[in-house]
């Protein structure tokens, strides 16, 4: 059973050993910054109940995997998603374990990880980084997140929060601003790119407008998209220099703002004056679908031998 | 047997299972940018011969570890140290294996790693990060280098070059410069801090002068040291955000430029507006001595179960 807790929705489904979702098992409930803790807990209960009810007769549940928006605290099994204000130190692992207790065999794992970390495992399991020992999965969307495979294993970090690439510094500080005003997410995420374009005098309002402006050759739209992709490329170069990665898979809605977004990222990586080993990294399109948060949560069980 | 190949010297020694160098086994030969490939090979041969000759009767060599200035290429067992121009793709592992063949038992390991990576393993073996599963070792000196322990194991990366923290971007780009003019090493290493201070009108010439100026309260010297420590702190925050580290150990000559250098680094880490988990990292003084490159090379053999 896979559970995904995000800032706008909670989902659950049953996922088979090949990464396929079981028909009829997927359910979704909305969440939001205004949700109370009880409402969030009820949403989890409802989607889990729906998924478990779809377990075919004769099939056995082998475990439960939970991907959650972060930060998480694996030491205590709790989550404190930035955009779900009512949950601070919420014992999500314990709640899911209790909900599934009646159908889970004894000693079956109930595993919690950050959503970006789970996604990196999904990418390694059925996506674009299969067979790769050192890989980064990046999602460029409302925010910019990530997850890492190193030494052939998933990297969770001391408390489960490894992979937060959106919060590393890029050398692009606006005059007079703190260095932390120049993190990858601040420069490259969809809403932040739109905001930057509007500061330059652009009249659009959303990522879709930016996509249209890019195709039409609008000067500011083109500059804004390039600025985002360039920042992603610089972050990839920094992280690849630090970790000596083989492959970086890029997904997320905003990475599709232009057909050549990945080409722009690749150009940035190739132009970086770094050591040769850091330029060998392959930048590829994510091989995952919109089911990926659930596939990632399931991978925590099916690919448990890769957990760090 | 431990071998360390650096930009200014080659060393070898015998190292016991507790990390102690055997009396009389350590030897050193100078190297430099002008050395020919034959001169470098002869230096390696000489220090290895000296070390092997010190093997006490009845003692057995269990393996050879080699730490080298980078980049290295573990796929091919070669090294291309930036400051040793004559060696590009030099088969160092093969040379050391041949030199030690007569005294090495069959199947004994001959292991090559980047010097910073070896140092991180030494820090984990006998230094300041013992027992820590997610740790970074940083050396602030003529350059800025590093090495990583993640998931309780050494991180080598796809070709052996993980740990190059000196080449990640910091958000401190000088106006008009490329983003890559703002890497940690460019801002924080000893010679670069001295150069920056001189650009501000400071009259000293070396790190020692900067140390004296800092103690005397010279305004530019104080600003220069703080700028270096602050950049190290920002890099630590970026990397800790990405990798969720437990401990960062800092060593190297320039990290002793002021008594409070580590306090300045810690203040920078604490002031970073990052997620709470990234502020929990402990910044500690390296627990290693000037023997550390050799101890690190030996750790590649004695701590072989931690190799990634």
UniProtKB/TrEMBL annotation, chains A, B:
Pfam families attached here?
ROK (PF00480)
Note the InterPro entries from the entry: ATPase_NBD, ROK
| Record Gene3D superfamilies | 3.30.420.40
Q: Which domain of life is it from?
A: Bacteria
Q: Which family does it belong to?
A: Belongs to the ROK (NagC/XylR) family.
What is the protein name given in its UniProt record? Glucokinase
What is the species listed in this Swiss-Prot or TrEMBL entry? Answer: Frigoribacterium faeni
């Amino acid at each position: 059973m896979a559970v995904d807790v995000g800032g706008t929705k909670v989902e659950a489904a049953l996922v088979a050993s090949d990464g396929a979702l079981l028909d009829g098992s997927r359910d979704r409930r909305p969440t939001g910054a205004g949700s109370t803790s009880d409402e969030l807990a009820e949403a989890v209960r409802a989607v889990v109940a729906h998924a478990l009810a779809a377990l075919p007769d004769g099939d056995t549940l082998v475990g439960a995997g939970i991907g959650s928006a972060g930060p998480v605290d694996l030491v205590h099994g709790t989550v404190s998603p930035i955009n779900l204000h009512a949950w601070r130190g919420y014992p999500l692992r314990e709640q899911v374990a209790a909900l599934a207790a009646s159908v889970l065999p004894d000693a079956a794992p109930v595993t919690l990880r950050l959503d970006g970390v789970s996604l990196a495992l999904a990418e390694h399991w059925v996506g674009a980084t299969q067979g790769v020992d050192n890989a980064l999965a990046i999602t460029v969307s409302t925010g910019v997140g990530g997850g890492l495979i190193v030494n052939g294993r998933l990297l969770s970090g001391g408390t489960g929060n490894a992979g937060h690439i959106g919060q590393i510094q890029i050398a692009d500080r606006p005059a007079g601003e703190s260095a932390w005003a120049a993190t990858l997410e601040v420069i490259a995420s969809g809403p932040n790119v739109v905001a930057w374009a509007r500061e330059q005098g652009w009249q659009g309002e959303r990522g879709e407008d930016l996509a249209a402006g890019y195709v039409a050759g609008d000067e500011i739209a083109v500059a804004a998209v390039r600025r985002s992709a360039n920042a992603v490329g610089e972050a990839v170069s920094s992280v690849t220099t630090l970790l000596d990665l083989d492959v970086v898979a890029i997904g997320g809605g905003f990475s599709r703002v232009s057909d050549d977004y990945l080409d722009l990222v690749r150009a940035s990586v190739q132009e970086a004056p770094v050591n040769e080993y850091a330029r060998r990294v392959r930048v590829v399109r994510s091989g995952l679908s919109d089911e990926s948060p659930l596939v990632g949560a399931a991978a925590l069980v099916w690919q448990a031998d890769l957990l760090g």
